[in-house]
Amino acid sequence: MALISNEGEPICRWWIKKGIETIKTDKEIFSSKNMRQARLTFIAGKNRLSTIKNWMLAAQIIKSNKKLKEFELTNFGLALFNNDPKLEKSSSWWAFHLAICFSEINEPYASFFTYLDYLSNDWVNEKKIIQKIIITIKKPDDSDYTEKTTGSSLRGVRRMFADNRPLAELGLIQTRKNSEEGIAIRLGTPKLTDEIIIHGLAMMRFHSFKSRSSIDFSELLADGLAHYLCLSPEKLRTHLRRMSQSVRWKNYFGFNEAVNIDSISFNDDCNPKKTLLELLQKGEDTWL
Description:
Low-confidence stretches: none
Strand order of the largest sheet: 3-5-4
Number of helices: 13
Largest sheet: 3 strands, antiparallel
Shape: globular
Distance between the termini: 33 Å
Helix content: 40-55%
Radius of gyration: 19 Å
Number of domains: 3
Strand content: 5-15%
Structural class: alpha+beta
CATH architecture of the largest domain: Orthogonal Bundle
CATH superfamily of the largest domain: DNA replication factor Cdt1, C-terminal WH domain
């Protein structure tokens, strides 16, 4: 799976908002013939335009029509525009985060979470994450990425959770600097709501287990959901067990307990289109 071509840079709220507004009416804004207009629209140079476009592709907000050399909003992009046009709600950014986690071009974003420790929650050195990514993620021709390229892309991801960027305000990631070891990272302790968890479950089902009516809890863990929600396996199990007993979620999934094997059965409402609206329209504020 190829790395996100983020040019080593994060993206800000304004660029995403402007991208959604612009592509809604101008599908060719990212074409080479419209480079000058795009620079004026986004107040950005060539490399940053590539950053904006590729983050929006990774987050499944836009999709490419290569034959027509244009882009259009996905159903997810339209849902964001219709429910939170200014992208001010924390629920919009949880949806953004989960969309990348389960995207077809989600690296090294997904590995940034899955290579962090969700059991003891120890700090992990950024260099160790880079080394693991180099081993597991290949170029389209099956060759290795260089440490420089991988490190640049990962730093662009890490900076999404720093300073005044909206993902930083969710509390997903914690970082610290050490003069000897460099940057250390660990999963944060974000405020989770049932709407976030159910949308994560639906996204995982749609992208990994679409033809399945049930999965073992161990498969859910292997697919990364606990990491993406910054939860230990036991805490995720507790949330799912509690939610499965709620009248509100009974049409979405069931949590089945047996000796040494817990499983999740999927019901009709456990699909991303429905759970996205639950999150965007009913999700409570989880900003730090």
